[in-house]
Amino acid sequence: MNFPTHIVSVGGLVENDDGKILMVKDPVRGWEIPGGQVEVGETITDAFRREVKEETGIDIEVGNLISVSSNIGIGIQYDGISPIHTIVTFGLNAKAISGELTTSEETIEVRWVDRNQVIDLIDADFTKDRTRYMLNFDGRITYFIFSRNPYVVHGVQYI
Predict the structure, then answer these.
(1) Contacts of 90 (CB under 8 A, 6+ apart)
(2) Per the database record, which ranges form the Nudix hydrolase domain (predicted)?
(3) In the predicted model, what is the mean pLDDT of the chain?
(4) pLDDT, mean of residues 6-21
(5) For residues 123 and 151, what is the distance between their CA atoms, to the nearest angstrom?
(6) CB atoms < 10 A from the CB of 135, how many?
(7) 90, exposed or middle or buried, with CB in 10 Å at 0-12, 13-18, 19+?
(8) 91: closest CA among 127, 123, 128, 130?
(9) Cβ of 52: how many Cβ atoms within 10 Å?
C-alpha cells in the first residue's frame, strides 16, 4: 500500500500600519504573498513567522486562519522525479511589527502594495484566486480546492 505524501505549507496577508500588503517576487513564480513549507516539528504559525522573516526581513504578529487551499493534482518535486501529492496550504493574516524590507535567496524583490493592486501583480491564476479569497475574508474560512496543469477549480466552500 502506498501512503499519501502531503506537503503542508503556509502563506498569508501581512499588513503594515498603512494598510498595505506585503508582496514578494519569486524568480520563477513572480509576485505572490509570502509563505512556504512547514518544516518537521514546526507549527503553522511558527512557519509563517519564519518564512516572512526569511523572505522579507519583516517580523510579524500572526492573526487568524482565513483560508485553507488544497492542490489535489499530482506534480513533480524539484528533483524532477519524486511526486508531490496534495499540497495543503493554510492562509493566515498578520500585522507587521518590525524589520526592514530586504530580499533573500528566495526573493528578488519585496514591497508593500496597496490592497486594491495586489491581484494585478500576480501572474498565476491559482495564486490570484487563493489570494483573492484571503483579501475578501469576511469571517468565514474559505476552503479552496484546485489542481494545476491544467488549472481547474474543483470547489470552494465557506466554513
Answers:
(1) 8, 9, 10, 11, 44, 65, 67, 68
(2) 5-136
(3) 93
(4) 96
(5) 13
(6) 16
(7) buried
(8) 130
(9) 29
Instruction: State the amino acid at position 7 in one-letter form.
Output: I
The pTM of this model reads 0.91
For the chain, the domains span 7-158
User: Given CA atoms 25, 138, 152, 89 in this order, what sign does their dihedral have?
Assistant: positive
- The single residue listed with the C-alpha cell 513567522 is 49
Nearest 10 degrees: CA dihedral of 119, 123, 129, 132? -10
**For residue range 98-154, what is the model confidence (pLDDT) as tens digits?**
999 999 999 999 999 999 999 999 999 999 999 999 999 999 999 999 998 789 999
Pick the CATH number of 7-158 from 3.20.20.80, 3.90.79.10, 3.30.980.10, 3.40.1080.10: 3.90.79.10
Query: 1 falls in which pLDDT band (50, 70, 90)?
Result: low
Sorting pLDDT into bands at 50, 70 and 90, what band is 3?
Answer: low
CA–CA distance, 16 with 18 (Å, rounded to integer):
5
Distance from C-alpha of 113 to C-alpha of 62, rounded to nearest angstrom: 19
